[in-house]
Fold each of these.
Amino acid sequence: MAITTKTSDGLATISLSGRFDFNLNRDFKNAYEHFLDTVENQVIEIDFGNVEYIDSSALGMLLVLRDKAKEVGKDVRLINCHGMIRQVLDIAHFERFFEIA
């Protein structure tokens, strides 16, 4: 699993690839913590375009991010959610918590 980050015009993007599971917990947290402290970034996007697998621990990590972002007035969006990734998010009713594209 690889994580890359970038920022542009108030938008922070965390791009994931491979498997998004518990093994990524620390790296994922490290990737988003900087964006929570940055005033310029009002929206954090999680890009699933290259994710092959997602498990329940990853869903939990997304909810933790959402709660922390909400505390500091930021929004979280999930983008490029296709195939099995979208199915998992739909089954978990994540459209209640996130904007999903």
Amino acid sequence: MADVNRGNRPLSPHLQIYRPEFTSITSILTRITGNALLLGALLVVWWLLAAASGPEYFAIADGVITSWFGDLVMLLSVWALWYHALAGVRHLIWDTGRGLDLKDAESLAYLVIGGSFVLTLVTIVLV
């Protein structure tokens, strides 16, 4: 049966009305970092394939990956890796039924963000 009252129903909240919560932003960022890691991995795979192809092609790939753009992509990939891993641990904690109230969820979100930056700095210093 057709919905004759379709025009009178309220619409979903728009971004102008709905204010995203901090925990939802960190959850969205988890998905974004997961996809961004694919781009960094593709760059590394291209570099390895170029190394196997020959010195001329490797020089091109090595020039890209050691340029300021390549350094930036690798730095952001390290941060994305740590962020994504820590967010995965946060989800594992939630899967046990712990940390689901708002205060604990926000604390875990701050720990994930702070921990990702600290671990990125540690990685840069040690490597």
